């Protein structure tokens, strides 16, 4: 490219860093965008035709800009040196050790990114938090940056990402809002304007919200907490529906007509998954406790508790319906990703359901159209071996000879399976457990299946 108007880079080429930076590059051909990661395999994949992240439309966006103004590299230091704006999109998983283990966010990747930036940066740099972070992390970042660098000056902004996996490209192209928080000083406001100007190339100005740093950091955690709370609310009601002959889809339709509630995100299921909801609520709850608000902490922690319960309730129902034992029985699992149109399996309900069934001695046959066998094995078994976990290449294979079949991801292809053929190939009575409420239940019952669906009492 001819000399760029601006150079930006991103630390972290994951589910967020890759797609968000590809969209910026595609929309701003005069900006040079470098996405970096120490993981060589991941960078090689971003530079190939087999991208490490599956998202509808992503390949086209990447290919439209790659090697023109979009680059993927493991040379993090050079990218930092050459960039005016540095996005940080590294992982912030739940801490597994020490204080706050199981609840607090592990900030080791973000801190090491900050130290690397401080080590090599020269001149004025804008650092943008893209990762989801505990409120007030920017103040720690600024301290690390400013006390470890004499050659650079820094502004730290918060620009949390609201994309949903599975619809990332659509969400990035046409976001509900873009949020940018920064210090309310002349320098901070100037930095905010620079990042606003990037998004304003394709996002209407009225959708770009600017706030102080802390409101921006906190809003991301709160948005995820509200979304997850809505799912746990409808899932909790699904259990009551099963006990009372109410139908959870009918209840959702009825309450969703109330304009104060609205119709979206009221689909009952086996439980939410994904890398964010659980970790972000646990983190929010931990923060509340840290700031002396135990009642608020407990309120939000209960959202995760209901989700865990919903997953166990589902595997419990399979076991109960199969005459209280699944030992030696063949259970087909349709779908492993945490939702359709993604290959991401982090915190997917399928992990917990498969583990519960394996613990009861079942032979679990798993099929997912996008998730690799290695990934499924690692998620369910870790480093252990278990011959009862069998990963197969088609839905039909997973169901053939099964005592029961469970749908755990709402992939569209499951809606149009030949259930007559599946029924014929299963042991009788043939049980079907619809953990996503996507199948035509009456038709399946007419074929002879015994059907269980979330929040239904037939
Ligand atoms: N996945 C989502 O749907 C989603 C949505 C919104 C926000 N977020 C948030 O975005 C952040 C990133 O999430 P993700 O799903 O992309 O994670 P990810 O695990 O897919 O990617 C993170 C990447 O950062 C890399 N990395 C670690 N240290 C680095 C360093 N010093 N320099 C450069 N790269 C480094 C890792 O190798 C990894 O490839 C998290 O805070 C997450 O909560 C995720």
Q: What can you tell me about this protein's structure?
A:
By secondary structure, the protein is of the alpha/beta class. Helix content is 44%, strand content 15%. The protein is built from 17 helices and 14 strands. It has a six-stranded parallel sheet with strand order 3-2-1-4-5-6, with helices on both faces. The protein has a six-stranded parallel sheet with strand order 11-10-9-12-13-14, with helices on both faces. It has a two-stranded parallel ribbon with strand order 7-8. Helix 9 crosses helix 11 (277-290), helix 9 runs parallel beside helix 12 and helix 12 packs across helix 13. The longest helix is centred in the middle third of the chain and has 32 residues, at 213-244. The structure holds nicotinamide-adenine-dinucleotide. Residues 11-17, 36-39, 42, 76, 89-92, 109, 112-113, 116, 131-132, 161, 163, 165, 275-276 line the site of nicotinamide-adenine-dinucleotide.
